[in-house]
Amino acid sequence: MGKFSKQETSWIFYDWANSAYSIIITTAVFPIFYKAAATKAGVSAANSTAYLGYTIAIATFILAMLGPILGTIADYQGFKKRFFSFFFAIGVGFTACLAFVPDDQWFLLLVFYTLATVGSAGANVFYDAFIVDVTTEERMNRVSARGFSMGYIGSAIPFLISIAIIVLAQSHILPLSTAFASKLAFIITALWWGLFTISLFKHVKQRFYIERQPHPVRSSFKRLGHTLKAIKSYRALFLFLLAYFFYIDGVGTVISMSTAYGTDLGIRSTHLLIILFVTQVVAAPFALIYGRLAETFTAKKMLYVGICIYILVCIYAYFLKSTLDFWILAMLVATSQGGIQALSRSYFAKLIPKNKANEFFGFYNIFGKFASIMGPLLVGVTAQLTGRSNMGVFSLILLFIIGIIILKGVPQPEPASHYDKDLNVGG
């Protein structure tokens, strides 16, 4: 397949840059810092957890609503980079601002966290859409997989630095408070994210676009409406998004709830952070392996493999009893979580018309965001009805089975010209 081009490498390195936000802000450091701030302000544990949940729901809703609308506008010539830059600046800026919020101002933390999340996820809509501009259809699986692989490695480095600072502060080896050490982690995230995005700004450009019209916003709403009315003509896209909605919900639920399972087993928080770090490291080469195997066996078949592994994960989680069991579960997840996400992105990119990439990745964003609702709900309801949390995890198998059945009906991607024939294509 040859070496990666300058454009491909620059695009790939944004995964390296932005993934630091996912693990440090979304998963590890910020939730702990926020809970401590809320407790200091006299907010009960139950209420602070609920407020964080509401905040995530609000940010998810904002992104789901804005994605297709802004994406449709961004398909016009020269708009994609502008929208990406806008959301990138919001994400990096408010991530840094988290470090300057007083320790007991939990509500302000949530406000800044909402804005940082909107910025991060919003930039990702346009970043994902740039894949059609930087590479060919034949190389998309490999390029997308390399992006996820680099993301795992790129997130592990600042995460390790941040955790080291926090642990050394807690051990009084560094003359810092734990709160200040956590704030340093926010600054490290913003700097890492910003520094490694410079290459994308320099070398990635919008090659496919729709020619500008006199009233771009009004015209964009008309195009969006036309797309929704003509959804039947995008049968492959619709079926894939429906399959994606189910199986990615299962993937996301397993990832988001894994720490809770470990806590229930009595695993200490320090050990959980180590397991999380090792999972990131192991996931990196497996994302690459999925990309390479997709070139031989097709992306669709490798998606089947990934979904089947997640079904095994749900079965194994049902019998989870020890720390060793949790390690095995984490490593099973690591083998496939990056591969599934990478190949889903590249498979979708092959199905969409290139000059409407932003609009369609806006829909991709909607399905991915709203999919994060059903899985946790299924786990909660099943666990309550049966009185057993492991039955809740086992119930996720239903989502993977539905996803794989629908995916079987998705035809192979057709040439982009099949969809682009009536539109002006730049580049």
Distance between the termini: 23 Å
* Fourth-tier CATH superfamily name: MFS general substrate transporter like domains
User: Which structural category fits the helices and strands?
Assistant: mainly alpha
CATH class: Mainly Alpha
For the sheet with most strands, the description reads: none
- CATH topology assignment: Growth Hormone, Chain: A
- The fraction of residues assigned to DSSP E strands is under 5%
Helix percent reads over 70%
**Total count of strands:** 0
Outline type: globular
Total individual domains: 1
Give the integer mean of the pLDDT values: 84
- What pattern of helices and strands is seen along the backbone? HHHHHHHHHHHHHHHHH
* Known CATH architecture: Up-down Bundle
Low-confidence runs (pLDDT<50, min 5 residues)? 416-427
Question: How many alpha or pi helices?
Answer: 17
Could you tell me the radius of gyration in angstroms?
21 Å
How does this model look, in words?
- Keywords: Membrane, Transmembrane, Transmembrane helix, Transport.
- It comes from Pullulanibacillus pueri.
- This is Putative MFS-type transporter YxiO.
- The chain is mainly α and 427 residues long.
- The chain has one domain: Growth Hormone, Chain: A (Up-down Bundle), CATH 1.20.1250.
- The chain contains 17 helices and no strands.
- Helix 1 runs parallel beside helix 6 and helix 6 runs antiparallel to helix 11.
